[in-house]
């Protein structure tokens, strides 16, 4: 066992994944589709969180990475009839290259300015996709009829669950290694990390690559699940908002947090649908997110941890606003 | 050619108007207010409701927009910025969430569809083969008047000087008897008012719809980043650079490329010059 991973953890993960596997037998296929979306959102949220939640480099352009992955595989398989077994890995590689592009500003700028550059990346991509080679990208309308990998809710559910579980466990174990610790340390004080002799550039590049890898995998599989792609659905502030809020609501810089946040959000969204059918739903969950963020910037995860400690009677340490959160 | 110059001047005037309230917060409060676009949207919708749905005089509509902008500014400062104590990242994330909440609120009240705002000043004049609406001319003139007034306010009045002091050094200002809290509140209120006015003009230039806050926000961000310093003159200069760049690119290259160059400018300037063109320390 690697450092900090105990058999209790393994058991909990196995219980979680095993429990999820039983879902298709328990819930109707409509609910299953909601779970599929939640699984993908969890992947995106973990990808955002591994970069921004850990290192404090807040990415406002994450849909840029996801979109690159989704568009690459969609164009390859739809326009050039490349088999999916090649187009998806190609999409992941392209996303990682785009992650390097994303990384360059991070070498020189931090904080608010980094967030803004990434926002500009996303908006730039949104406009370029529509203008440059609309014969390939489908312009404003996007592409529909992309080949789907699986048919039926159950198969797609298992696929998304498998992806999410593998990514979650991978990132979770990564977080518990010394690299994970170093990345969180960058979020707290980058100069000190550099001062203690670590190469922060390499560490940051690693975080960007992992984040881009996850975003690419998520984006590519997601487009093959949906079967369609459109610029305003991807390079969109509401999409970005959903990803960020999922991470924050659950608890940034934990892996369980973004996952829980994604499930919480998706189901909140789903249960609000009968009352508020359109974008108005963002009003409720935005407000929930805002209040939660102001009250407990570390999210539901921290609230649960605090509650558990109160039950056990451990003294609660003074709450400190974590700048990385 | 004349057409490009006139269009460029007019668009730049509008952009200066959009950016100035955002710049003000950036220079005095030292935070980026991503919900700034929401002021514009609120102002525009309030004006629309008053002047077009209720049919009240335009002046009443404008006054209501200004009042709502001021209220929004003070609420935002009191409930979000002050409790977060200038934690930049937290302010950015929460103002982004706030912007989406406001957008959803607008959809809830006014529904999703786009609405056309009647021009505040109707009429068209033809100059050198280009149609110039009086409305855009009015927006440009208004922006010049507002910028001038703001410049005088910041330079000449006590409150304005206090704002300058706080923007330079909060502790120093506090020691010399300025209440930074009050100054910040005033700044947020002014920013809200400027945003609301800009919103009315911006909406009459484009259209009224619930996602209209994004593009003016990006313009404001570009102006702040490229201009950097948050001075009124800097805002004016950079708004003109961006305005002309857009007019030139849409006229000579392709109309769809409107925002592309603005975005590229943000990226290039930030990567080449991490402190912006006029170089103030990063947040």
TrEMBL record, chain A:
InterPro entries: ABC_transp_permease, LivM-like. The chain crosses the membrane at residues 7-26, 32-51, 63-80, 86-104, 111-129, 157-174, 205-225, 237-270, 282-304. It is found in: Cell membrane. GO terms for molecular function: branched-chain amino acid transmembrane transporter activity. Signal peptide: none annotated. Keywords: Cell membrane, Membrane, Transmembrane, Transmembrane helix. Its main location: membrane. It comes from the Bacteria. GO terms for cellular component: plasma membrane. It is a multi-pass membrane protein. Pfam families: BPD_transp_2. PANTHER family: HIGH-AFFINITY BRANCHED-CHAIN AMINO ACID TRANSPORT SYSTEM PERMEASE (PTHR30482), HIGH-AFFINITY BRANCHED-CHAIN AMINO ACID TRANSPORT SYSTEM PERMEASE PROTEIN LIVM (PTHR30482:SF20). This is Branched-chain amino acid ABC transporter permease. It comes from Microbaculum marinisediminis.
TrEMBL record, chain B:
It is found in: Cell membrane. It holds the Pfam family BPD_transp_2. Keywords: Amino-acid transport, Cell membrane, Membrane, Transmembrane, Transmembrane helix, Transport. It comes from the Bacteria. The chain crosses the membrane at residues 6-27, 34-50, 56-77, 89-111, 131-154, 185-205, 217-245, 257-278. GO terms for molecular function: transmembrane transporter activity. InterPro entries: ABC_transp_permease, BCAA_transport_permease. It is a multi-pass membrane protein. GO terms for biological process: amino acid transport. One of its GO terms (cellular component) is plasma membrane. Belongs to the binding-protein-dependent transport system permease family. LivHM subfamily. This is Branched-chain amino acid ABC transporter permease.
């Amino acid at each position: 066992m690697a450092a900090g991973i105990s058999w209790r953890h393994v058991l909990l993960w196995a219980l979680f994944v095993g429990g999820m596997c039983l879902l298709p037998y328990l819930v109707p296929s409509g609910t299953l589709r909601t779970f599929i979306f939640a699984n993908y959102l969890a992947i995106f949220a973990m990808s955002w969180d591994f970069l921004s939640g850990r290192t404090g480099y807040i990415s406002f352009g994450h849909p840029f990475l996801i979109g690159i992955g989704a568009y690459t595989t969609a164009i390859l398989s739809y326009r050039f009839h490349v088999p999916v077994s090649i187009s998806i890995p190609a999409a992941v590689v392209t996303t990682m290259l785009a992650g390097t592009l994303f990384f360059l500003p991070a070498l020189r700028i931090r904080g608010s300015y980094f967030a803004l550059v990434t926002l500009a990346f996303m908006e730039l991509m949104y406009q370029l996709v529509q203008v440059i080679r609309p014969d390939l990208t489908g312009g404003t309308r996007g592409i529909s009829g992309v080949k789907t990998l699986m048919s039926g809710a159950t198969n797609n559910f298992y696929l998304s669950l498998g992806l999410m579980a593998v990514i979650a466990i991978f990132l979770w174990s990564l977080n518990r290694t010394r690299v994970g610790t170093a990345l969180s340390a960058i979020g707290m004080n980058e100069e000190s990390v550099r001062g203690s002799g670590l190469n922060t550039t390499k560490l940051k590049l690693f975080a960007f690559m992992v984040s881009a890898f996850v975003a690419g995998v998520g984006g590519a599989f997601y487009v093959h699940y949906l079967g369609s792609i459109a610029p305003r659905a991807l390079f969109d502030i509401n999409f970005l908002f959903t990803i960020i809020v999922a991470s924050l609501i659950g608890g940034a810089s934990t892996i369980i947090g973004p996952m829980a946040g994604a499930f919480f959000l998706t189901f909140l969204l789903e249960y609000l649908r009968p009352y508020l059918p359109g974008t108005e739903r963002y009003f409720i969950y935005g407000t929930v997110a805002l209040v939660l963020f102001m009250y407990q910037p570390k999210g539901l995860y921290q609230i649960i941890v605090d509650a558990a400690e109160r039950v056990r009677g451990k003294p609660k340490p003074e709450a400190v606003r974590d700048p990385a959160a | 050619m004349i057409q490009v110059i006139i269009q460029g001047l007019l668009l730049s005037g509008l952009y200066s108007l959009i950016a100035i309230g955002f710049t003000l917060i950036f220079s005095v409060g030292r935070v980026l207010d991503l919900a700034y676009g929401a002021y514009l949207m609120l102002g525009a919708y309030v004006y629309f409701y008053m002047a077009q749905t209720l049919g009240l005089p335009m002046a009443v509509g404008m006054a209501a927009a200004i009042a709502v902008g001021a209220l929004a500014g003070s609420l935002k400062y009191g409930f979000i910025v002050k409790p977060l104590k200038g934690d930049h990242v937290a302010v950015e994330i929460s103002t982004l969430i706030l912007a989406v909440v406001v957008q959803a609120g607008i959809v809830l009240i006014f529904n999703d569809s786009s609405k056309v705002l009647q021009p505040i000043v109707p009429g068209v004049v033809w100059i050198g083969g280009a149609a110039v609406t009086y409305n855009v001319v009015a927006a440009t003139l208004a922006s010049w008047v507002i910028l001038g007034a703001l410049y005088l306010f910041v330079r000449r009045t006590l409150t304005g000087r206090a704002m300058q002091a706080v923007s330079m050094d909060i502790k120093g200002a506090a020691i010399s008897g300025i209440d930074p809290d009050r100054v910040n509140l005033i700044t947020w209120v002014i920013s809200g008012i400027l945003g609301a006015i800009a919103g009315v003009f911006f909406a009459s230039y484009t259209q009224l719809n619930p996602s209209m806050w994004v593009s003016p926000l990006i313009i404001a961000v570009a102006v702040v980043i490229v201009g950097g310093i948050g001075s009124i003159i800097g805002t004016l200069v950079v708004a003109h650079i961006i305005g002309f760049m857009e007019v030139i690119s849409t006229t000579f290259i392709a109309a769809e490329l409107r925002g592309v160059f603005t975005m590229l400018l943000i990226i290039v300037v930030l990567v080449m010059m991490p402190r912006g063109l006029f170089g103030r320390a990063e947040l």
